[in-house]
Amino acid sequence: MSDKERPSFEDALRRLKEIVSELEDESVSLEDSIKLYEEGIELSKICTETLEEAELRIKKVHEQHNGTKEND
Predict the structure, then answer these.
(1) Mind listing the pLDDT tens digit for each residue in 28-47?
(2) Other C-beta atoms within 10 Å of 57: how many?
(3) What is the chain's Cα-based Rg?
(4) Domain at 20, CATH number
(5) Domain count, the chain
(6) pTM over the 0.70 mark
(7) Which domain, by its residues, includes 57?
(8) Residue 7 region, left (φ>0) first, then alpha (ψ -120 to 50), else beta?
(9) Which are the contacts of 9, defined by CB distance < 8 A and separation ≥ 6?
(10) Angle formed by the axes of helices 9-24 and 30-66, nearest 10°
(11) For residues 67 and 29, is the Cβ–Cβ distance under 8 A?
(12) CA 22 to CA 36: how far, in whole Å?
């Protein structure tokens, strides 16, 4: 998925919530459930990557502000 196609964190999270609701509906076919699951996995990856990038940015700002690096 290119950056242009990549949804924002908020949009990805919103769609994940929709997918969970759809998967809870017992009338969804197995094939549709698998497609929803696959979409959910991709959106989950996007959310995880976005959160990891945000964490790194916050650490960088913190380090610049304090003038030192934290030991993890």
Answers:
(1) 999 999 999 999 999 999 99
(2) 10
(3) 17
(4) 1.10.287
(5) 1
(6) yes
(7) 9-66
(8) beta
(9) 46, 47, 50, 51
(10) 150
(11) no
(12) 8
